[in-house]
């Protein structure tokens, strides 16, 4: 089972939803990067469960501990181990899942692949694993911020059929975090919250679309063929639990446009190149051009719902199951920081590869 992401900046996540702890080992972080537990914790606090009535009531402090790789507030260049202990497991909620496969989950496919599975909250398939990604993403984000001034923002653009009206260029981190659903459109935010409460009461769940805005990305990173920047970003997003779709720039809407509409006019002004529009989403030929990278990511409804559903069991019998446990009625509410983290991990690898490739004696 592969749990490693990245080449030069490699992260290996470990731990299960109902195990002792979850964490990550980062290998390849440059030495001398200022890094404290507090700044990693700030990112994790945006992901943690129990934040408000719109998310899972599981209570976890998600307190991060730096176990290795730093000295006197700076990275040493050696592997960084980050860990957070699980404190609020209710493994008994999953007793029925010993025999039954939950619809929409990885229970069946894990058994088909490995012949064995951790039924407590899904084990490695649980979204709790994303805690480790966020911790590693905080480190990657800082490298990009200090090296290039890169700012990575993600927010909820729509929940179900409720859509926000947002100018991406005007969105701020403060506006995102001021909303309980992390939507910077206050009117839409209220409607989204009401819809999420509605589906919770109906013992159901709802999906959402997130926007991702990467401002001042590293220039000229990404490869022309198999490691195009958009392919690496898209691959990173599709590793996130519940993600079902990814698009960059105009995305699918580009299929309805003419070339004369979609092509971004290039200008050289004030000592640099820029485009008058950004239909391409900041990437041309798989290589970043310095413009803002804009993406959209689709999240499916939470698979675990408290309604009775038909299913089958590992004994080849058909039956019915009411899934138990504490789950988000809309997983996307806690997802923006996960999206930002995976974007940072994707870009920092491309950035470090480019730095190594352009090194001159």
Describe the model.
It is a single chain. The protein is built from eight helices and 18 strands. α1 packs across α3 and α6 runs antiparallel to α8.
Short description:
This protein is of the alpha+beta class and 361 residues long. It is built from 8 helices and 18 strands.
Ordered list of secondary-structure elements with their pairings:
Elements: E1 4-5, E2 10-15, E3 21-27, H1 37-47, E4 65-68, E5 70-71, E6 74-75, E7 80-85, H2 107-114, H3 130-148, E8 151-159, E9 162-163, H4 173-177, H5 186-201, E10 208-215, H6 229-237, E11 243-248, H7 259-262, E12 266-269, E13 272-275, E14 283-284, E15 287-288, E16 293-299, E17 309-312, E18 318-321, H8 336-357
Antiparallel strand pairs: 1-2, 2-3, 3-7, 4-7, 5-6, 8-9, 8-10, 10-16, 11-16, 12-13, 14-15, 17-18
Keywords:
alpha+beta, single chain, 8 helices, five-stranded antiparallel beta sheet, 361 residues
């Amino acid at each position: 089972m592969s749990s490693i992401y990245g080449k030069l900046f490699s992260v290996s996540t470990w731990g299960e939803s109902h195990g002792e702890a979850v964490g990550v080992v980062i290998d390849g972080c440059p030495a001398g990067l200022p890094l404290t537990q507090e700044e990693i914790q700030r990112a994790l606090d945006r992901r943690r469960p129990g934040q408000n009535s719109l998310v899972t009531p599981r209570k976890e402090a998600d307190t991060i501990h730096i176990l290795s790789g730093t000295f006197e507030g700076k990275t040493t260049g050696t592997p960084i181990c980050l860990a957070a202990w699980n404190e609020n497991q209710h493994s008994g909620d999953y007793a029925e899942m010993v025999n039954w496969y939950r619809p929409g989950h990885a229970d069946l496919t894990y058994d088909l692949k490995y012949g064995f599975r951790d039924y407590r909250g899904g084990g490695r398939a649980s979204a709790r694993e994303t805690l480790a990604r966020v911790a590693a993403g905080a480190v990657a984000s800082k490298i990009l911020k200090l090296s290039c001034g890169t700012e990575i923002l993600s927010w909820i653009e729509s929940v179900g059929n409720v859509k926000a009206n947002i100018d991406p260029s005007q969105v701020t981190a403060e506006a995102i975090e001021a909303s309980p659903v992390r939507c910077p459109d206050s009117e839409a935010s209220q409607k989204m919250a009401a819809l999420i409460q509605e589906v919770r009461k109906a013992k159901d769940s709802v999906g959402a679309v997130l926007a991702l805005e990467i401002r001042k990305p590293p220039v000229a990173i990404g490869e022309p063929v198999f490691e195009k920047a958009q392919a690496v970003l898209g691959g990173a997003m599709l590793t996130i639990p519940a993600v079902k779709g990814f698009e960059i720039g105009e995305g699918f809407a580009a299929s309805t446009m003419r070339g004369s509409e979609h092509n971004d006019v290039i200008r050289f002004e004030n000592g640099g190149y820029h485009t008058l529009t950004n239909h391409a989403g900041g990437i041309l030929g798989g290589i970043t051009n310095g413009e803002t990278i804009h993406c959209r990511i689709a999240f499916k409804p939470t698979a675990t719902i408290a309604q009775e559903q038909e299913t089958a069991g590992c004994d080849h019998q058909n039956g019915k199951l009411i899934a138990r446990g504490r789950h988000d009625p809309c997983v996307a509410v806690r997802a923006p920081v996960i999206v930002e983290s995976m974007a940072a991990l994707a870009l920092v690898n491309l950035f470090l590869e480019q730095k190594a490739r352009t090194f001159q004696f």
